[in-house]
Structures are given as C-alpha cells and as structure tokens.
Amino acid sequence: RALGKRFSIGTRFSAEGRRTVHAVDNVSLTVRRGETVGLVGESGCGKSTLARCLVRLYDISDGQLIFEGDDITGKSLAELRPLRRRLQMVFQDPSASLNPRRRVGDLVAEPLRIHTKLSSAEIARRVAELFDLVGLLPDHVMRYPHEFSGGQRQRVGIARAIALNPDLVVLDEPVSALDVSVQAQIVNLLADLQEKLNLTYVFIAHDLSVVRQVSTRIAVMYLGSIVEEGPAEEVFATPAHPYSQALISAVPIVETTPGGMRKRIILTGDVPSPLKPPPGCRFHPRCPVAQDRCRTERPQVRDFRPGRKVACHFPVAS
Ligand code: SF4
Ligand code: MG
C-alpha cells in the first residue's frame, strides 16, 4: 500500500493484434498494492483489451505502461520475461485457457518450470501447496481438465496464476461462465487468497453486484474510455456519470438503502463501434441528460471530488 508502489497505465494507447484495434483510448488507471480495482462496463467496451494491455499480452502502440515506477511500454518479450511472472491473468473460460491434453498438475507446474530453477521435487511440493490453497485435493493433480467441473477448472486457472507469487492478477470475468451457486465460492476463494498472499487485483466483470462485493475502487468504462473512477462504495451510492448511474440503477438493491428504491434507468440504443466513436462525448447518443455541448466537446477526466474522477460536462451532483 506504500505510495509509489503502484501500477499505472497512461493515456491513449491502443492494442495491436493482427490489425490495430483502437479499442481503448484515453485511459489512465492506477492500481495500488493490495487493492482490488473493479473494472465494469457493457461487453465490447474495451475491458478485456485494457486487461490484456495491463499484463502486456497486447502490445501498446501509443501510450505508457508504468510498473512500480518503471516504464515497461516498449519492452520486448525477452525484457518482459522477469516481469511476466509478476503480472498474471485469470481468464473467463477456464476450459479455453487450459490445455485439455495435459494433466492439471502439469498445467500448474508449467509456470514454475519456465520461470524458476526449482527441482522437480520442489515443484511437486509447490504444486501440492497450490492445490491446497485453491481448495483442490492432492490426487487431483493426475486428472485432466475435462474431469473437473467449471468451478474446479477455475480453481486450477487460479492456482496457475498465483504459482509464481505475482504482484498483480488481472481477473477477466473470472466467474461469469460459472453457475451462480459456484460464483460465490470462487469470489470467496479470491478474497481469501488476496488476504493471505497480499495480492493486487484488477477484477473485470459486467455483473456489478459481484464487483461491489470485491472492489476497493471501481472504474467504469464506456466505449474504450474510463468515464468514472472512485471508491467502490461511494460510486455505488452516488454515481456521478450518467452512464454509471444507468449501470448501477440496474443492480438489484439487496439491503434497504436510506431514501428507498432507486429508479431504474433504461439505456436505449446499442453501443456504437469503438472504431467509429461518436463525436464529442462518446456517450451522448444514449445519454438521458445530454446537451448541445456534449455533441461537440469531449469531456476530459477530471477530479470531481477528492478521490473521485469523472469524464462528463454535467456530472450528477448528489
Ligand atoms: Fe451525458 Fe454530456 Fe455527461 Fe456525456 S458529457 S455523459 S452526454 S451529460
Ligand atoms: Mg471481455
């Protein structure tokens, strides 16, 4: 939690795959050690792209990625190697990210074989320890991914991701592919591991009730940009950006909040293509409170109040 120990990503970058996809633009996100930043937004808004940029699975063509004060934006794969172990990712669909022909013990051992000089016996011991940490049984190591349930497969994915004691784990919708009954178990496991291992998370989800449970801070993305950021409880209680308001209004309120029911705001229209975003505020075609200025002038991210940022000309004051 010490200041300066943080991961941040600078503005205006795009991911380069087979073609350049400007899916993420004008984003600045700082993640402090030990916290969980929830990244939310509709599908297609660039959450996964940003996640892959954070762990440098995508190249960043324009912008800056700072890791503990070090600019790692332009580092080559070889230069990134020592860092790679400190930045890990858990994917939405564990079946797609686990090689079906390898035993799960092997899959969890793989990062240890690649990145450490541990002996086979030490690796076996570490794998057993990891299985125990994520709630799998010792004899599970000999099984293949298809012999497991979705939740167990995600436990394997998590064991793999934490094998090297990473500093940052980016969780890209880690529970959305799971049955609701299993989701809570995995969320609790992630919370336990965070506490035990002092992990830092970026937790991506479109399900806001999950994000609310786990996040210290949240960042709301719309069409490739972060439109609001702040302490999770504050943003949930008093969202300032009209888009956050609409997203949050769709979350069922479990506890009784003072002031009673929240009015549900239904957004109309589809999310426009990030390759051809609307001029001015990217949200203006769908914004219930848009004004003339919004159609021409793009709002910059600014401090709305201490610890809270918003990119809107007319944030909702409450
Ligand atoms: Fe709505 Fe204007 Fe704010 Fe954009 S800048 S969210 S259009 S009020
Ligand atoms: Mg995604």
Automatic annotation (TrEMBL):
Location relative to the cell: Cell inner membrane
The primary site where this protein sits is: membrane
Which keywords are on file for this protein? Answer: ATP-binding, Nucleotide-binding, Transport
Its Gene Ontology cellular component terms are: plasma membrane
Which PANTHER family does the annotation name?
Answer: D,D-DIPEPTIDE TRANSPORT ATP-BINDING PROTEIN DDPF-RELATED, TRANSPORT ATP-BINDING PROTEIN
| Family from the record | Belongs to the ABC transporter superfamily.
Indicate what this protein is called per its UniProt record. Answer: Peptide ABC transporter ATP-binding protein
